[in-house]
Amino acid sequence: MKSRPVYILITIVITSCILCSCSKSRAIENLPPSVDPAAIPDVLIKSDAAFREREDLLKLRDAIAQLATVRDPDNRNFEVERRFAEFNYFLGIHTDDEKEAEAAFDKGREAGKIVSKLEPEKPDGYFWFAANLGELSRKSPITVGLRSVDDIKEAMNKVIEMQPNFQGGSAYDALAQVELATRINGGKAENAVQYLEKGVAI
After folding, report:
1. Rounded to whole angstroms, how far apart are CA atoms 131 and 55?
2. Which of 57, 66, 105, 199 lies 20 to 30 A from 85 at CA?
């Protein structure tokens, strides 16, 4: 009878080891497959071709899906992430599905943040981060908008500092919209006018 607790303890230990092993196996199985860098150029060409026909949302979704296949969290690629941020922005703007739009803007925001870290001296990441965040703020002005104003302003001002004519001077338009949308919290219409005039000049 004295040996019974020992057998029980051994059984528990063995069971725990088996469960731990199964858990690790599942974790390994759920890891994303490694991305072959050699596949990226071809995917970029195909996704760009689909994006040029973005009036057809199926083409736009296909462009995004193709880019998703070569996104590697362990080895980020500037061109892949930049396009992923931009393409998701356009999907969010044009889809009639509110959930799809919100998900697209969220993915675009995160990709934009990645791009700004990959190439901090280029305006691309800051612009697409702020553009996507701006649309999320428009959809959720209380939960997202109020706490995102400074982030949007900071990112768009970086774009202007680096390349004022980036995306046709759209950073000025974005800052003007922020001023108008935050008039009850310090935004000023005259500031919006100044931003717009600078954008028009570009």
Report:
1. 20
2. 199
